[in-house]
Design a protein that fits this description.
single chain, mainly beta, SH3 type barrels, 6-stranded antiparallel β-sheet, 6 strands, about 45% strand, globular
Length: about 70
């Protein structure tokens, strides 16, 4: 079962980040490997579906999913 998480403050390793793609294609997906920073300053180490890892600062238009 997939659950949409309402706040980036609730993110944890194993959650999925979905980021819309300009032009209306399928969203970009990334697996959260680590949650860094304190409340209000969250950032994530993410392994994107293109198989690279990066530090990512969440944006309001993105979604968090827990599977």
């Amino acid at each position: 079962m997939t659950e949409t998480i309402s706040s980036f403050e609730q993110a944890r390793p194993g959650d999925w980040l979905e980021s819309p793609v300009a032009g209306g294609g399928p969203p970009r997906r990334g697996l959260i490997l680590e949650v860094r920073g304190g409340p209000g300053h969250r950032r994530f180490l993410v392994r994107w579906d293109e198989e690279h890892e990066a530090i990512h600062y969440p944006e309001p238009h993105e979604r968090l999913r827990r599977e």
